[in-house]
């Protein structure tokens, strides 16, 4: 059995259940997340990683504080270079803009470089519905496009698949003879993609960062497909979230460092493609038309609601790789374009329809490994706590939980009721434990969720405070006696 | 967060025993008291204390957590302010994190200036047990003796919020007769996470099972840790799976004394399959 796709619209519980049952998924995730994490650690310790993180964070904070000005500067410079800037409030506006550009340029086929933001706005679907052919050209993206799946990781879209699974997809969709040789598989994909590059009229990519000062769009890739997408077709469209910009060229290289080291553990990526405008007279290549779509889609709302810190994200995926929850369930279980800790934070805040997004902030043990890994030091656990608190304040917490919490606080608010509850729990749990050989094997719902897989110890027969009181009494006796 | 540095070693501390230790693991509380006393620190136990409010806070119930936080501040605040104790010590990384880090989230200085001041002054003198022993008292060897293979699990709040890691490891390294073994993924979460263990029981269990696998690979008899909540989770799985290893709170290991005057007789050389009593079984 191959690593099966999880239906993103299935209820959260169902998605998680399927993911947990999938042993191949577990193998694939364990291998790759551990590999990526240790590569990151090595790359970050090879330099002054703390300083790199601090500086990147400061720079991104500056960007957020000056967002409107910097965006306008970016627009001015792109326009001056001969490019076009479009502003999109939401997904449908962005789709309409890209479709309109395609229509005017008479486009039939689109080649794409890996981009999360276009996944976020379901651009492929919109283009295909309009009759265009869309081809993903990043090898990983190409594989999941063939498999009919969304990406399951911000940086490594096929992280959930083993080599065996990929071979199965290629055999089915590309008539590849059975092989597990990665080189042979790559060669087949490359030959196919070459044809697509040569015949596409439009290239679409996301943006890793855009430089306000020069009006330059930068994309970071390892396969070289990015530079084909940005330079071969007649029209090049870059779609970027409004937060993905940096003030200066120097800042761009700061973020480039942080991004490469954190995502794949590389010092720098194999390719860095910079596009500042359309082809000028005398240029040997480059697009005739250059468009940049600036997408809000809930981002300014996030800023306004106090979740601006999440907009510092450079989408390196480091938090996914270290996340023990992600490692167990993979990206698809999150049901959204963005998975892992950062996904759990932004998916409920983005306007995209994610089934049961409200459950995502609870899918974390708040262990904090993500914050330690994040190159911009985003305090992801705190953001998750804030989201939980917002839900409670908006009265969205389950009724039973609210009642339980009220009882809990009332009990803990007085020594008497606390001590009485303790005695009761001790009596009840010891009686039950006596029946099941020392530990509790069954508890009533909702605590049964614990005892289904784990024992629980009975409460102590004598609490610490009782032992303490006895000890103090003994001491007093000794003191009096002596 | 700024920890106070003491010119004179603290003489008297207030024990913040935590509700779980109080009600489920009193032996951990007792071991903590004995350890502190043995190192010349007088312990007082403010009996009005209950719970710091962490379960409510983590689940998003800030109003509810605030009620318990206020209570904690009112019980422990005066003791520190009036000089009755020099510090507050808790045998728990996560409860220490709650009172020293997260209380600040509950009281903003504009709306609750008094509480805010109080949480800051308490945060400076509240310590997790091993942090207190090593950083404040300067103890690196508690004189404990514990025969067996011991490994260490780093509980998340202790490691990542309080940044306490070297302290417990140093203390364990100096335990006589303990053979320290490496634990793969020692810094990975065990999957407890409070309500997470109930709300996302499947993921929580999968994380714990990974921990249990690593523990089995390590060959350890016991895994020492500084938080009874993680201890409950890890033991819950180990016991359900019938594994031999057990999680033990570090206070119990650091407090374990074997009478040096009369060591237990060595096992007869040729006697096969002499079952050595497992140390954790005595402890539990
Ligand atoms: S939150 Fe941090 S670690 Fe996660 S993807 Fe964004 S920048 Fe990377």
UniProtKB/TrEMBL annotation, chain A:
PROSITE patterns reported in the protein's UniProt record: 4FE4S_FER_1 (PS00198), 4FE4S_FER_2 (PS51379)
Residues in the signal sequence: none
Domain 4Fe-4S ferredoxin-type: residue ranges: 304-334
Record's keyword terms, sorted: 4Fe-4S, Electron transport, Iron, Iron-sulfur, Metal-binding, Repeat, Transport
MF term (GO), any: 4 iron, 4 sulfur cluster binding
Record bears the keyword Transferase: no
UniProt keyword Iron-sulfur present: yes
Gene Ontology BP term (one): lactate metabolic process
Family matches, as NCBIfam families: LutB/LldF family L-lactate oxidation iron-sulfur protein
Protein name according to UniProt: Iron-sulfur cluster-binding protein
UniProtKB/TrEMBL annotation, chain B:
One GO cellular component, as annotated: cytosol
Disordered: region residues: 259-284
Pfam family, one: CCG
Ranges of residues in domain Cysteine-rich: 13-98, 150-234
GO MF term set: oxidoreductase activity
Matching PANTHER family: LACTATE UTILIZATION PROTEIN A, UNCHARACTERIZED PROTEIN YKGE
Name under which the protein is recorded: (Fe-S)-binding protein
Organism for this UniProt entry: Litorilinea aerophila
């Amino acid at each position: 059995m191959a690593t099966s796709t999880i239906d993103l619209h299935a209820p959260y519980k169902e998605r998680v259940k399927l993911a947990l049952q999938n042993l191949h998924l577990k193998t694939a995730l364990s291998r790759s997340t551990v590999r990526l994490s240790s590569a990151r650690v090595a790359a970050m310790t090879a330099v002054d990683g703390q300083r790199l993180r601090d500086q990147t964070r400061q720079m991104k904070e500056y960007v957020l504080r000056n967002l409107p000005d910097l965006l306008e500067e970016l627009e001015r410079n792109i326009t001056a270079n001969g490019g076009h800037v479009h502003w999109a409030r939401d997904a449908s506006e962005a789709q309409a803009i890209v479709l309109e550009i395609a229509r005017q340029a008479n486009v039939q086929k689109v080649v794409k470089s890996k981009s999360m933001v276009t996944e976020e706005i379901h651009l492929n679907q919109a283009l295909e519905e309009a009759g265009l052919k869309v081809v993903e050209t990043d090898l990983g993206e190409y594989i999941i496009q063939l498999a009919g799946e969304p990406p399951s990781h911000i940086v490594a879209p096929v992280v959930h698949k083993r080599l065996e699974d990929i071979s199965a997809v290629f055999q089915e969709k590309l008539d590849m003879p059975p092989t597990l040789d990665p080189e042979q598989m790559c060669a087949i994909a490359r030959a196919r993609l070459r044809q697509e590059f040569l015949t596409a009229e439009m290239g679409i990519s996301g943006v890793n960062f855009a430089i306000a000062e020069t009006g330059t769009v930068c994309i970071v890739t390892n396969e070289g497909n990015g530079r084909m997408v940005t330079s071969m077709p007649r029209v090049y469209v870059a779609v970027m979230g409004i937060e993905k910009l940096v003030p200066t060229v120097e800042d761009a290289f700061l973020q480039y460092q942080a991004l490469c080291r954190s995502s794949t553990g590389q010092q720098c990526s194999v390719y860095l493609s910079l596009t500042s405008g359309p082809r000028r007279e005398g240029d040997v290549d480059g697009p005739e038309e250059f468009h940049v779509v600036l997408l809000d889609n809930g981002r300014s709302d996030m800023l306004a609601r106090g979740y601006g810190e999440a907009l510092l994200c450079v989408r390196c995926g480091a938090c996914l790789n270290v996340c023990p929850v992600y490692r167990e369930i993979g990206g698809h279980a999150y049901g959204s374009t963005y998975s892992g800790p950062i996904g759990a934070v932004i998916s409920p805040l983005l306007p995209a329809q994610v089934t049961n997004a409200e459950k995502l902030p609870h899918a974390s043990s708040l262990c904090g490994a993500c914050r330690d890994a994040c190159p911009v030091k985003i305090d992801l656990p705190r953001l998750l706590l804030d989201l939980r608190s917002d839900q409670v304040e908006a009265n969205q917490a389950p009724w039973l939980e609210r009642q339980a919490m009220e009882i809990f606080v009332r009990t803990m608010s007085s020594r008497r009721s606390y001590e009485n509850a303790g005695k009761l729990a001790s009596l009840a749990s010891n009686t039950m434990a006596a029946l099941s050989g020392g530990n509790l094997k069954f508890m009533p719902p909702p605590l049964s969720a614990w005892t289904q897989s784990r024992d629980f110890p009975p409460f102590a027969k004598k609490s610490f405070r009782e032992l303490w009181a006895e000890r103090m009494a003994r001491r007093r006796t000794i003191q009096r006696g002596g | 967060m700024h920890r106070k540095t003491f010119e004179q070693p603290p003489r008297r501390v207030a024990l913040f025993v935590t509700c779980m230790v109080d009600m489920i693991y009193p032996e951990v509380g007792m071991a903590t008291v004995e350890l502190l006393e043995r190192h010349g620190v007088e312990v007082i136990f403010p009996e009005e204390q209950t719970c710091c409010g962490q379960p409510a806070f983590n689940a998003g119930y800030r109003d509810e957590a605030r009620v318990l936080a206020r209570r904690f501040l009112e019980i422990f605040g005066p003791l520190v302010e009036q000089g009755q104790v020099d510090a507050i010590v808790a045998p728990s990384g996560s409860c220490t994190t709650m009172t020293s880090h997260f209380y600040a989230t509950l009281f903003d200085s504009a709306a609750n200036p008094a509480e805010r001041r109080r949480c800051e002054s308490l945060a400076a003198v509240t310590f997790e047990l091993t942090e207190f022993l090593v950083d404040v008292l300067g103890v690196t060897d508690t004189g404990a003796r514990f025969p067996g293979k011991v490994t260490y699990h780093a509980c998340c709040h202790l490691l990542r919020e309080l940044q306490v890691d070297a302290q417990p490891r140093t203390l364990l390294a100096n335990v006589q007769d303990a053979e320290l073994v490496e634990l793969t993924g020692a810094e990975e979460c065990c999957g407890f996470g409070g309500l997470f263990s109930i709300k996302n029981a499947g993921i929580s269990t999968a994380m714990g099972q990974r921990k249990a696998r690593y523990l089995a690979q390590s060959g350890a008899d016991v895994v020492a840790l500084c938080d009874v909540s993680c201890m409950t989770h890890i033991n819950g799985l180990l016991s359900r799976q019938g594994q031999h290893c057990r999680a033990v709170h570090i206070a119990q290991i650091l407090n374990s004394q074997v009478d040096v005057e009369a060591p237990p007789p060595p096992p007869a050389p040729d006697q096969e399959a002499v079952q050595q009593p497992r140390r954790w079984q005595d402890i539990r």
